[in-house]
Amino acid sequence: MHTGKTRLAARASLLALVLAVPPGVAAAQTAGPAEVEELVVTARKRDEALIDVPFSVAAQSEAVMRARGVTNIEDLSRTVAGFSVQNLGPGQSQVAIRGISAGQIVRDQPGVKEQVGVYLDESVISLSLFTPDLDLFDLNRVEVLRGPQGTLFGSGSLSGTLRYITNQPVVGAFSSTVEATASKVQGGDLGGELKGAVNIPLGESAALRVVGYATSFAGFIDAVQPDGSVDDDVNDGTRWGIRAALRFEPSDNLAITPRVVYQSIDVDGFNRVDVYNVLANEFTTTRPRVQLGGTKQFTQFQEKFEDDFFLADLNLEYDLGDVEFTSISTFTDREVLVYRDATALTGSITGGSLGLPPAVYLLDAPLIDTTDVKSFTQEVRLSSDTEGPLAWVLGAFYSDIDRDYAQDLQVTGFEALTGIPTAGPYAPRDSLYYSEVPYKQKQFALFGEATYSVTERLDVTAGLRWSDYKETRTLTFDGIFAEHTPAVPGKTKADAWAPRVIIAYEATDDVTFNAQASKGFRLGGINDPLNRPLCTPADFATFDALSEPTFGNETVWNYEAGMKARLGGGAGSLTIAGFYADIKNLQATIDAGTCSSRVIVNVPKAKSVGFDAEIAWRLSENFDVAASASYNDAKLTSSVLDAAGLPIQGLRDGNRLPTVPKFQASFSVGYQREISPGLDAFANLTAQHVGKRYTQISDQEDNPRTVALFPNIGAGTAANLVFPLELPSYEIVNLRMGVRGEDWEAAAFVNNLGDERAWLSIDRERGLRARYGFLTNPPRTYGITLRKSY
After folding, report:
1. CA neighbor of 88 nearest in space, from 775, 732, 717
2. What is the per-residue pLDDT across 32-81, written as a single tens digit (0 to 9) for each?
3. Measured at the alpha carbon of residue 132, what is the angle toward residues 128 and 133, in degrees to the nearest 5?
4. Least buried of 36, 42, 94, 387, by fewest C-beta within 10 Å?
5. Whether the Cβ atoms of residue 209 and residue 171 lie closer than 8 Å to each other
6. What SS3 class is residue 390?
7. CA-based Rg of the chain, rounded to a whole angstrom?
8. Cα–Cα distance between 313 and 683 in angstroms, integer?
9. pLDDT tens string 384-416
């Protein structure tokens, strides 16, 4: 058995080794010229080599991500099998694993919980739609745990878990890195980044690690204005942040690490391309004709997204000899502002449906969404020394979350022009839609997992988590577009069990087979009432019957079998897994017809069947290759019917689950060669393929879809338009090359080499009648990066 002193010293030595190796040459210096770098991960809340984890896990170091041109979570998803991200704008990414997705979550659905848990080290940071868009600088690695991880990570990990693992302070070692990048988007703006990290020893028992970064996002979307002028590159913005952690080791068996994290994002627009806008299009005869598409959108004023994220956590590790005690206390405070141009949506109602004159339906209509979240979480656990036949972990988890959400549609001048009273008990004058929705959620959980080595080759793992959830909400709606609902309470609660059983058999020293059954869980929630003043009688009858006050808990039973292998004596590695996921009470998001509302409906049964595979091979001292591929057949296996016995909003047996492709793959080839003593040249080419997808389940019905235009506002030369709703497949190719010395690196890169215009998700208003477009990726981008380590 290790003593506490030996175990903490071994961990510190491992951290020092990881941080001392210059990025990009880890494989050459730690594994030999013919071996692939082997990462250490903590997917089971203990240190293990990646290949020894007995279920499907992908991990990429910061050096690998940088070499492949990965700069954000969306880029990462294209290089990891079974992992996909739907881009809904900056800081608004929706994550899915293995095809399990219930539909696009949008800003006005604060009660919907995430299906993938997202963690910064040990601290949970998931927030359904608003997954933080964290900078990837000075990370040790990113881990993607595929399949339900509810036993160790709880409710948000229904289909998997994403973990950002940062570099920790290292006692007794000084190190620092600075990095600068300049870039130019083709047809767009200039961008740049400046980042730095420093590890400062403070005597013999403490160290401080500080990371700072600032990014200038290059805009590439042009916004046509009502007077015909064009504002260029409106989706530019900034992100800056700091992470500071202090590790204090007062004794050989105690380590205390307090940390603060702050990040601010401020973006002036969205990466949206408008194909049709009811206020600006090529068909209207009542408005100036405008040709959209390309990289253009139509707005009447500047949109904005702001995200201020603060986290403070305290990690305490106390080694008791054969048992280690760990405590993680986390406080987060997050404020998100989405300020968007809802004039097309509002005008489709005031002009298109109500027939009010242009002076009214052309009034600026900013829709202001605000989210303020404060949360506290506490986890404590005991874990055994990993040596010996039995390794175990036992723990408890508590969380207390307050989330205040509000919307305000401010149409200044509406009451004066129309004489329609707009002020209400809660809504101020000219606020046509107003809501306040504070949520409170508390959770308590107990969990445990143990692995027993039956023989030297056979391990059996069993785990179980019990959770108790309670959520309350008070809803206030006001305004002429909303059903007046003053201070309506609602609540939901659940007791949930999340078991897991894993069998791993080491057939040889290099090949391990594994199989598991595991359960994932997602808490249900409370539906908002329909916007009855906007509903047609038929839509109100249909969707009022569906919009139950609460929607039920969603569960997944996952069954999988896989293999992990070291190839060629360590020159390569292979991971492959096949899975079957049985989904119950899928929380499907649907549009409530003309009501401009969204409701969550439980679909009784769905499934996802497929495989994910990843291979890496170091062909020689100069060449290495890596590839990943995943396939999933994710679809509904039951229907939700209306009173006439017809499927509602695409909830039909056999329809695919949305937002995820059936097939995606990536391939990367790297080259490195010494050109003089201490100087290497390197290059990397990465190609990524993402298959066809749908944004919402209903997009599969009547696709392409014929939409009747509003004759008095958006039509003229055309009464109907046909809109394709399937998102096309796309390929992204990144190229990076440069030279590297012992402690410096200079690289040039071209991202999106083929200048692919990817459709990431359909953007629509009022059921496509007010706006039809899509969110897209940056065009071809050129840049240079300089990096220096000390």
Report:
1. 775
2. 444 556 788 898 988 888 888 999 999 999 989 988 888 888 888 888 99
3. 130
4. 387
5. no
6. strand
7. 27
8. 39
9. 976 789 999 999 999 999 999 999 999 999 999
Residue whose entry in the numeric block shows the structure tokens 């903590």: 42
724: how many CB neighbours lie within 10 A of its CB? 14
pTM for the full predicted model:
0.90
Which residue is it, tokens 């496509």? 768
- The 3-state DSSP class for residue 560 equals strand
* Contact present, 50 and 41 (Cβ < 8 Å): yes
Phi, psi angles (nearest 5°) of residue 676:
-165, 165
Give every CB contact of residue 139 below 8 A, 6+ residues apart in sequence: 61, 62, 65, 164, 165, 166, 167
Determine the Cα–Cα distance for residues 616 and 567; give it in Å rounded to an integer. Answer: 9
Neighbours of 365 (CB within 10 A): 26
How far the first Cα of the chain sits from its last, in Å, is: 37
Nearest to 42 by CA among 82, 3, 13, 15: 15
- Whole-angstrom CA distances from 153 to 95, 160, 663, 717, 772 are 16, 9, 27, 56, 38
**Strand, coil or helix: what is 552?**
coil
Tokens of 432: 């046509």
Question: Cα angle at 273 between 272 and 276, to 5 degrees?
Answer: 125
To the nearest 10°, the Cα dihedral for 449, 389, 326, 153?
Answer: -20
Q: Cα angle at 249 between 246 and 251, to 5 degrees? A: 165
Token look-up 């294209």 returns 78
Please tell me the chain's helix, strand, coil percentages from 3-state DSSP, rounded to the nearest 5: 10, 55, 35
pLDDT for 127: 75
Cα-based angle 400, 402, 404 (whole degrees, multiple of 5): 170
340: enclosing H helix or E strand? strand 323-341
Q: Quickly count: other Cβ atoms within 10 Å of residue 20's Cβ.
A: 12
CA atoms of 149 and 499, how far apart (whole Å): 9
Other Cβ atoms less than 10 A from the Cβ of 320: the count is: 11
